[in-house]
Design brief:
Layout (H helix, E strand, L loop, with lengths): L5 H15 L22 E6 L6 E3 L6 E7 L4 H21 L3 E7 L4 H11 L5 E4 L5 H4 L7 E5 L5 E5 L7 H9 L14 H5 L1
Parallel strand pairs: 3-4, 4-5
Antiparallel strand pairs: 1-2, 1-5, 3-6, 6-7
Length: 196
Amino acid sequence: MKPDQEDKCNALKEAVKPIMEGIKDVKFDVKVNLGAGCPYKPIQNVVPIKGGEPMTLEHTEGEVWLIDFWATWCPPCQAPMQHNEDMLAKNGAKWGEKVKINCVSIDQTAEAVVKHVGAKGWERPHHYHRAKSDFEQVYSVDGVPEVMLIDTKGKIVFKGHPGNRKNLEEDFEKLLAGEEIYGTGCEFESAEAKNA
């Protein structure tokens, strides 16, 4: 269900509970599906990979964000992660604090991420370990790599595989200028459509 239907979603869950009591081997679940076109809901309980307390990734108006969900053991994640580093090396001075690339690892430990990021020299993006975050359920992240682009107003404008965005540098420039981006992953996708 779309985020504007969260109250209906919660009411339906409560209404179904007494009906489901005592029924075995049947599971009922309904949830809000956040994706392109929805407001960004801050990701909670991630931890910076080099240590610190659990924190929330709060978007600041005026910034364009790329959130990259990835893992060190995931071969398809490696090229997008290198691309993140390369984009910031090339454009970091120009973009300043207006573009942030936040990488959230699903690895079992933050130590594995620290070692991998250090060996690869991927120091420019902001790196976090998933820790106790529930972002996979909140954003229906079923696998990695998966990315989200957040515009200057805090709206998710793309959610999907990074390979579906052919020119992220151009996307950042357009979003910084207040323009829209288009293509696969730029429209809200229901859970039914996603699983079809």
